[in-house]
Amino acid sequence: MTSPSSAPTLIAPSSAALTPEGRLRTYEVRTFGCQMNVHDSERLSGSLESAGYVRADVGAEADVVVINTCAVRDNAAGKLYGTLGHLKSRKDRRAGMQIAVGGCLAQMDKDAVLAKAPWVDVVFGTHNMGSLPSLLERARHNGEAELEILEALEVFPSTLPTKRDAIHSGWVSISVGCNNTCTFCIVPSLRGKEKDRRPGDILSEIKLLVDDGAIEVTLLGQNVNSYGVEFGDRQAFGKLLRAAGEIEGLERIRFTSPHPAAFTDDVIDAMAETPAVMPQLHMPLQSGSDRVLKAMRRSYRSERFLGILDRVRAKMPHAAISTDIIVGFPGETDEDFEDTLRVVEQSRFASAFTFQYSIREGTPAATMADQVPKAVVQERYERLVALQERISLEENEKQVGRTLDVLVSTGEGKKDAATHRLTGRAEDNRLVHFELPAGSETPRPGDVVSVTVTHAAPFHLLADSADGSPLRIRRTRAGEAWDRSQAESCGVPAPAGAAPRAVSLGLPTLRVPQ
After folding, report:
1. d(CA 403, CA 463)
2. For 427-477, how does the pLDDT look when each residue is reduced to its tens digit (9 = 90+)?
3. Contact 271, 241 (CB under 8 A)
């Protein structure tokens, strides 16, 4: 089997990006699902902009709506078709509007999307995101829907142009696909076997992001710590962390998600010994019951899982650890669930993404006996959520009085305007809302502020000024890049010497022409 191409993918300008009147058509990408989908949506946006489309203003009705779907949970289909039903009425009254559906659910349902929603113009899968502009053009020219689903990846998505949502932070995919066979998971059949990018290509993309103003990157993979198995280096992920940590200007490195079975001490050492790697770890538990873990085909047991957390905390005492947990997997007994509660109590997670098990057609678990009744699952779920909220609050209360370096972000604090606060992420990825005292300079997104935590809640920290002193702000390259982007978007001249921002590619030597 041939490996996907790592050569940069250039997207040609598309005649379909122009209306008959010569106006540039606008687009909107709606993302359902995980961080991998968020990253993929940035590639879809970059591909569309390279073809000549422009992003629609917030609240405006776009000429092209792209839905990047998720198939992990059973309600994914309901969410998609509900959204498509809503968009149909808009399309009926808006001549020339197009709707495209891509991602995991499109890869799985294929023809079913057009059968259930014949007003959709384009259906594409997880392996051919770069085809979106040409599919839109063909659908418009031919006056009929275009369906293109590839069964294998031909090019790494990271070779496509990208339009990042945040200037200060970027996603970098190190692999695609997964070699695990978890009985509840549909992802391997939709994204294929694991394919690893070469380390040099990954580091080149990180350098490009840093050159473009980013000071934080998150390395992405379905199982990041199995990275390197394809080219025979089982310690490749730890080496990659260390190499990324040497890139000048890169201040924060995160990654998601590892698998407990493949999490080794060399990775823990690399995390602890590389200053740019943040004291944060997302480690999916899924269940605290060894019997259920075996039924899930999760090739670790609770003792190993807890041992990993102990070793991480021994090297990184302030690490914040989060997790994923499934409640009500087929055959889960009261005793199994009590084991999960016990492991959660011992783990002291900073936060947890908790899910009620739902049948996913095409997975082994879907046909297992002893499906747990909905009422039982709901009761267990509520108990788990209550336990984790208590633990999250207790762990966050330990932060009160600490001074944290917070990377200022945008869009994460929904009440910031009303509370006169700004929002960002601490090094351990905790969400921090901090006061902007009267007369203080305002930090830009991408700047770093040092604040003292004054209050804790289960899902966030507050840092209010005790005496009204101005914020302690460290102005960063990312903040300067944000200034340039604002100047360009408003037609205001950028500071002297500032290079124009472009839709970027996966290698630092190439840019899409302006």
Report:
1. 9
2. 999 999 999 999 999 999 999 999 999 999 999 999 999 888 999 999 999
3. yes
Torsion over CA: 514, 219, 227, 101 (sign)? negative
Question: 202 near 172, Cβ under 8 Å?
Answer: yes
What is the rounded CA–CA span in Å between residue 287 and residue 296? 9
Q: Which residues pair with 68 in a beta bridge?
A: 31, 102
What type of residue is 446? G
pTM for the predicted model, two decimal places: 0.82
How many C-beta neighbours within 10 Å does residue 33 have? 20
* Separation of alpha carbons 459 and 441, rounded Å: 27
CA 463 to CA 124: how far, in whole Å? 45
Q: Is the pLDDT of residue 77 over 90?
A: no
Picking from 450, 370, 447, 461, the residue whose alpha carbon sits closest to that of residue 408 is 447
> Which stretch of DSSP H or E encloses residue 105?
helix 104-109
* Site of tokens 């959520």: 385
Domains of the chain, start order: 15-148 (3.40.50.12160), 159-397 (3.80.30.20), 403-489 (2.40.50)
Q: Are strands 461-463 and 431-435 parallel, antiparallel or unpaired?
A: parallel
Sign of the alpha-carbon torsion through 345, 349, 355, 357: negative
Q: Which is nearest to 426 in space by CA: 280, 234, 215?
A: 280
- Model pLDDT for residues 183-200, shown as the tens digit of each residue: 998 878 777 888 899 999
Residue 488's pLDDT band, with cuts at 50, 70 and 90, is confident
Residues 6+ apart with CB under 8 A from 34: 70, 72
